[in-house]
Amino acid sequence: MKLTKKKLEQLIMEEYARAVGHETRSTNYPEYSDKLSKLAKQNYPQARELADALDEPIDIEYDPNQEHKIMQPHKRNIDEFFNDDHMLHFDFLMDGGASSFEEEPDRQEVYEFAERKGLDFQDTHDRIMNNWKILMMRTFVRPETPNDKMRSIHGIKVTGM
């Protein structure tokens, strides 16, 4: 079997994974590859700094048998933000009850919404008002919205908020 460059790269990538941010870098100094990989095991920040200075990628040893941690960075915040009261408030807005989350819900519009949905008026009103107050407190305490946060980190806009 003839060992082509593509096949060699495939064999290497089965044992090594490229560090994040280095995926598109090509190897200019293959003699430093093993040294950078070993340094990354011991002191990743130093290896990253050296690799950036040399414009070299870092190949990290990949062990498929090793258990990998799965990140769920904002799961708690999402579950906390999109609870049942929030979704009821959202349904109220989509039904035409108010023009935005920031607008205080009108008691008469909540009554009409509860009648259309077959819900208890007082319970519906309390839940919508509770969610509205929470949203207003978040805006006051943390004026940066999730949309602003996504825009500052990733340069994207989250729609629907």
Compact overview of the structure:
The protein has 161 residues and is mainly alpha-helical. The protein has helices at residues 5-15, 33-42, 44-54, 75-81, 84-94, 107-117, 121-141, 146-154; strands at 16-18, 59-61. The protein folds into two domains: 7-61, no CATH class; 94-154, no CATH class.
The largest β sheet comes out as: 2 strands, antiparallel
Total strands: 2
Radius of gyration: 26 Å
The total count of helices amounts to: 8
Q: Uncertain segments of ≥5 residues (pLDDT<50)?
A: none
- First and last CA, distance: 57 Å
Question: What series of H and E elements makes up the topology?
Answer: HEHHEHHHHH
Q: Label the structural class.
A: mainly alpha
- Helicity range: 55-70%
Number of domains: 2
Structural overview:
This protein has 161 residues and is mainly α. The protein folds into 2 domains: 7-61, no CATH class; 94-154, no CATH class. It has helices spanning 5-15, 33-42, 44-54, 75-81, 84-94, 107-117, 121-141, 146-154, and strands spanning 16-18, 59-61. The N and C termini lie far apart (57 Å).
Walk me through the topology.
Elements: H1 5-15, E1 16-18, H2 33-42, H3 44-54, E2 59-61, H4 75-81, H5 84-94, H6 107-117, H7 121-141, H8 146-154
Antiparallel strand pairs: 1-2
Helix pairs in contact: 2-3, 5-7, 6-7
Q: Which short descriptors sum up this protein?
A:
161 residues, 2 domains, two-stranded antiparallel ribbon, 8 helices
